[in-house]
Automatic annotation (TrEMBL):
Keywords: Coiled coil, DNA recombination, Meiosis, Nucleus. The gene is LOC109052979. GO terms for molecular function: double-stranded DNA binding; recombinase activator activity. It is found in: Nucleus. Coiled coil: none annotated. Its main location: nucleus. It comes from Cyprinus carpio (Common carp). Belongs to the HOP2 family. This is Homologous-pairing protein 2 homolog.
Length: 130
């Protein structure tokens, strides 16, 4: 295996561990194409190699193979920690909703201002006084 291929294997492994969700070889190829410069065949071979080495897991659904990080490498999370995370998610979601509502209100106000400015500009161009 060339240095480029082994570097690609390491990047694929790091990517799958970082994202920690299932991907097809096509998804990984599309997402990492610019970063590691591997072809699709090289990505498929690298992922199969990682699966054979036990560094990632593979599941076959018909003709499709799905790859994902080996979950045994991640620490277990207690119920208390999960509840904390859920509470934090709820807080952030509320904050996002509030900010989104504020943005919509500001956008509506901005559209009104644009309408008024456009009307003033048209009056200035025609020479009519307001």
């Amino acid at each position: 295996m060339s240095k480029k291929d082994s570097a690609g294997v390491a990047q694929i492994l790091a990517y799958l561990n970082e994202k920690n969700r299932p991907f097809s070889a096509q998804d990984v190829f599309s997402n990492l194409q610019k970063q590691c410069g591997l072809g699709k065949t090289a990505v498929v071979k690298a992922m199969e190699q990682l699966a054979q080495e036990g560094k990632i897991q593979e599941k076959v659904y018909g003709k499709q193979k799905i790859y994902f990080a080996d979950q045994s490498q991640f620490a277990d999370v207690s119920d208390a920690e999960l509840k904390k995370m859920d509470a934090r998610i709820a807080e952030i979601s509320t904050e996002v909703q509030t900010i989104s509502q504020s943005c919509r209100q500001l956008d509506t106000g901005l559209q009104g201002e644009r309408y008024l400015c456009k009307g003033v500009e048209e009056e200035e161009e025609t020479g009519n006084d307001p």
